[in-house]
Each structure stands twice: as structure tokens, then as C-alpha cells.
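[RESIDUES AND BACKBONE]
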Amino acid sequence: CVGFSVAGILSGGPIMQLSAVNAQLVAGVLYNRAQDEFDEWPGSDYDGTSVRAGFKAGVAMGYFASYVWSWDLATSVRYFREVGPGVDGVDWYTGMFTPDKHGYVEPTGSIEGGHAIRRVRYSVKRKATLWANSWGRAWGRNGTCWVHDDVLSDLLRWGGEFCAGTEVRLPPATTLGHPDPKALSVARKAA
């Protein structure tokens, strides 16, 4: 979920660096590099990685100039509204697998594990964040759910994190984001 959430930012803006197909491919590379090189746990014989490690991998791969992170709602909402999208890494509870009839999730039941989920919108009226999940459009409402401010505040306070990257506009790229020499030579000739 970390790889898909970070790659989702790269395919969804503010700078669209990847097509949806390339985002799927880059997601796996981001995840593997995050787990193998950047997260806080030794080895890679486990499922998952941290959101922060995902953004460190994104910086190492050249997609982001830098990254920021926060553990509180006010700071993360301010960043999201003033600068751009990010990813929340939170404990995922049994009650969050199925949004309610209004599209909201609640942390009820047992902790099932950690989950990374992309912030795509904030509603002042609702006092809630819209999350885009990596589980496909069949989940929730077209792949999204809402989380109330007080719930997200608790999830962050209980060990969650918000992370976002400062995107770098890349030259035309191949499937895995490495510069395509032909595209660069065409760009140089046009300049």
C-alpha cells in the first residue's frame, strides 16, 4: 500500500509524472526500495514498510526533491490544503474495511495491521479528509472513503504519520522512470 499510495501521488498531481500503468510498475520498485533500504526495521522478511521510507525511496529515485512528515492533524491538514497531496500511514482497524452508508470509516474492532492511504481532498464543511485507497474502485465509494477530523487526529496521535513529497518535474521517462535518451535528444533539438 505504501508503494501504491506514493506512486498514486506521482500519477495524480500536482505534477502528473506517471501514467496509471507506469504508476503500477513504479509502486513495486518504490515499495521494495523503501523496505530494503530506508525503513526502520532490519531485513525485508516481513510485509509492509513505513510511509516515510516510501518517500525516502521516492527522493532516492528522483521523483521528489525532499519530503515532509507530521504526526498531528493540524499541521498535516495545513500542508495538504496549502501545498498538496500526501499519504497517511495509520493502524487499520476491522471497522475500517467497510465504510458506512455515508462513506466514512471508523477505527472500531481490532487492529488488523498498518495501512498507507492517499489524501486526495479535504472538506471544510464535512471537517473530513477524503482518502483514496489502493484496493481498487470496487472498495468504498469508487475506491475512496471519508475520515472525520477527530478520527484522523486520533489515528495520527496513536502512532500514525502523514508524509508528502516536494515533486520534481522530470524529463520524459521510460517505464520505470529512468530518462529515455531518445526523448531527451528530441527535447534538446527542439530547444
